[in-house]
Amino acid sequence: MLAAAPAIYTFLDGMNKHVFTEGELGVILSQNRATWKIPDYFNKSRLISFLAEAGKLSTAEIVSEHYRSATRYIWGTASPFAIALSLRSSAYLSHGTAVFLHGLTNQIPKVLYINKEQSTKPRPTSALTPEALARAFSGQQRRSVYTFKYENWTIVLLSGKNTGRLEVGPIAADTGEPIDVTRLERTLIDITVRPAYAGGIYQVLEAYKAAKDRLSVNTLMATLKKLDYVYPYHQAIGFYMERAGYEESRTERLLKLGTSLDFYLAHGIKDREYDSKWRLFYPKGF
What we know:
Radius of gyration: 23 Å
Number of helices: 11
Shape: elongated
Strand content: 15-25%
Oligomer: single chain
Largest sheet: 4 strands, mixed
Order of helices and strands: HEHHEEHEHEHEEEEHHHHHEEE
Number of strands: 12
Strand order of the largest sheet: 4-5-7-6
């Protein structure tokens, strides 16, 4: 193993990945056993122990009070974002975490949101009515209780709408790993739909302000169309953009999508005001 160590270290150093499960390390061992001339009796558990003692492999424990905890193996250093993403295959960072990664807030997140999309479900066929909207937004926003802890971070697993990973792409973490995150326009749509996952409506407004010079209305509208929401979230998006100081020529495009129903900026608004232009209820004093 001491003879093979330099080749193993070079291989792991060359990977664009720093976080591994035990199974993934086992696959790496199987695929390279002959090249590294490692005998069959040397299994993945022995490899992990060897790399921890002689290399730079460390352990990350992701724990939960209600769900199965997980152990991850870190080669060198890894960002908490990559560690969080390792909990679910094909997951991506979203909502308030994406707001931070896009530089739309200076607040360092204590909660990491990762989204694992649901299977495709049929779109509701019943007509949307004022009564149905009022019922849907009368209570508080549903929040995921599927949570884990890693060091000082809370990881929240979301089961989002199936979008085929629409407007999701990799960015480089500080430690060099690629991490998948919703792109800017998709992020702003997501936090409009679920403001509680971004710290609330005031934080959502601040994100819109910070994105003003970077947001593409074309991309935003194309993304919103593909997301195909039943509820008229474009009214809330246009309202945020107007409050954030966007030019009328940009907000007018959202207005042209129509305002046939009264809508709500958030769930569970008790003391509220009404914007007649966007036909939108919002908390008093906002």
